[in-house]
Amino acid sequence: MNVTLLAIAGSVIVLGLASYAGYLLLQLKKQKELQLQQQKLAIEKRNANIFESVNVLCLAGIQEQCDLSEISIRLYNIMDYVQGEERVDFDQEYPATSELFHIVKDMARGEARQELAKQQRMKQNLERHKAESRLQQDITEELKRLQKKVKPLNNQINIQMI
User: Which residues form a coiled coil (predicted)?
Assistant: First the structure.
């Protein structure tokens, strides 16, 4: 009789612990799914911010409000931060912009450019202008294509003041 009671009590305890372990595993699965969902939303939000900036840069380039070399540097670097399925192989999909980036990426900019000797600065200007004029048409087309590509991916809500 004692052995039977102990076996029943042991079985109840084991069944209770097994049920609790199953419950904990289910909670862990739900938590992991929630974490993945939150991570996906964070990536989408980050990409939306990046695509908003890319859209503005493309518009500035298309309207010739900024040097193409500056735009190529900014676009190439900012698109490197895109995550997930929207990630772009910039060298492959936008070869003209990528080529200009690789030509001008090591040239002095800002204060470093002002510190260069005048002859060196003129040499860099000439090289940059040659590359820009040679690639201008292709880069403008790529900017239009890139702008069309990122516009539908930008999930930000536009709020307008009335």
Answer: 109-156
